[in-house]
Write a structure and sequence with these properties.
With 231 residues, this protein is mainly alpha-helical. The chain is built from eleven helices and two strands, in the order H-H-H-E-E-H-H-H-H-H-H-H-H. Helix 1 crosses helix 2 and helix 6 runs antiparallel to helix 7.
Length: 231
């Protein structure tokens, strides 16, 4: 996938906004916030003007006119160029049609889950669930309001996708918490024992794995399959 000349997701939002009509940057930021697009695209309003300047530098937008209202500073109104329209269409096509590998923060944390004691992990996951489940309730309520207003779904379809992700995360984490708590998660018993040995006797995980029979009462077949540098 070729690298874009202006790859900031905010640039995509700017091009999409200017595809509707010419606007000045402040008007773009106001519209993005009013439409809730900042919930789907990471928007750093402090960098908006530099993003617009970069788009102008590469010929994707151009200044249309400069206006002044009362005592307010002058504002430059921009419009999308033909090249900008082509860039937006190509970018949108890529986002909708081409899967990309996303690195979720929770996935990164799960990759190193044994780095914390099981009970602490349960505590943290339940803390996370409180926030996620509240957001789910709030999002569902917002959807119900928009449905009652007969506001076309096409204008908030991205929020449905966000809700689906939140619900999937909630269901998974609820299940994971129960598996850790009940020791039904594969390796949970050894995880608990490893932390007990470390906290009570100061025996490191590396030492434990050198003689699993001594510390856990059985040989771990999987240890023989792990490259030495991974241990």
């Amino acid at each position: 996938m070729p690298r874009r000349k202006v790859g900031n997701p905010l640039a995509f939002a700017v091009l999409g906004s200017l595809s509707e009509r010419p606007m000045h940057p402040y008007e773009i930021s106001t519209m993005l916030r009013a439409r809730g697009k900042d919930q789907s695209i990471k928007v750093n309003y402090g960098s908006l003007y530099s993003v617009v300047a970069s788009l102008e530098k590469h010929g994707f937008v151009e200044a249309l006119e400069t206006v002044r209202q009362g005592n307010r500073p002058e504002r430059t109104i921009y419009r999308i160029t033909e090249a900008g329209s082509a860039e937006f269409s190509d970018w949108l096509t890529e986002l909708v049609g081409t899967p990309s590998r996303e690195f979720h923060p929770l996935e990164a944390g799960l990759a190193y889950l044994p780095g914390l004691p099981p009970d602490r992990v349960v505590e943290l996951l339940e803390q996370r669930l409180k926030v996620v489940d509240v957001e789910i309730e709030e999002t569902i309520a917002a959807h119900e309001r928009m449905t009652a207003l007969e506001f076309p779904r096409i204008f908030w379809i991205e929020s449905e996708f966000r809700l689906a992700l939140l619900q999937a995360e909630s269901a998974y984490v609820h299940r994971l918490v129960e598996e850790i708590r009940s020791n039904s998660l594969g390796g949970a018993k050894f995880w608990r024992q490893a932390w007990k040995l470390y906290l009570e006797e100061g025996i490191s995980p590396q030492e434990q794995l050198k003689d699993p029979v001594k510390y856990f009462g059985q040989e771990f077949a999987w240890v023989r399959e792990v490259p030495p540098e991974a241990l």
